[in-house]
Amino acid sequence: MKFAVVLVRPKNPENIGLVARNMKNTGFEKLRLVGVKSIAQKSYVTAVHARDILERARFCPDVSEATADLDITFASTSKTRKNFLSVSLKDAVREMFQFPASTKIGLLFGCERTGLTSDELRSSNFRFMIPQATRQPSYNLASAVLLTVFHIFAHDHFKEVETVREKPLSRQEQEEFIRLILRKLEQNNFIHSTNKRHMTEMIYDLFGRFALTSKDRKLLLALFSKTVSQ
């Protein structure tokens, strides 16, 4: 698998460095930062031996650009969302290894205070939650990344899983398809002003979990062209 860790609007530079260190310890190399323009010195201090990961980090203005060239994205969330289905971290990792080894996978983590917004979650195929024993609101950002990348690292090294799914379209192609479907539904008044946000989020969630392939897109476009126009 080809993984990229995506930090969305991180506020604490020490956390960025700790994330890089956690990635280095578990064999991850690609770090993308959304809403960050440069690496602060405090990040290099906490990164210790992972300076190279920070130096190669990619800066992106928004989540869509950060995930456009990826195939599948998994977003961490500390709470259930009304219109987005969430699975456990264990199930999410199992799902990752159902795809071919060439699949480019993004791991999305929101900012320390608010996490990922609903709009940002639309750029993910799957959402996962990390279990915890207390009512503490959420894990520290660096801790959440460590738990996630370690589970992936351990799964990859100690258990072989047969690939059963085809490689999906890129996230950019998936989102373009979803927007096309939304436009068709709006044109036929399936989506209107009173249900637009609710329906939009549900459709992003549904088609995201499909992890659409080129064959899926061709079939669904044919179906929508026939049924929606009637």
From TrEMBL:
Residues of the tRNA/rRNA methyltransferase SpoU type domain: 3-148
Alphabetically ordered keywords of this record: Methyltransferase, S-adenosyl-L-methionine, Transferase
Pfam families: SpoU_methylase
Record GO biological process: tRNA nucleoside ribose methylation
GO molecular function: RNA binding; RNA methyltransferase activity
PANTHER family: TRNA (CYTIDINE_URIDINE-2'-O-)-METHYLTRANSFERASE TRMJ (PTHR42786:SF2), TRNA/RRNA METHYLTRANSFERASE (PTHR42786)
Name this protein carries in UniProt: tRNA/rRNA methyltransferase SpoU type domain-containing protein
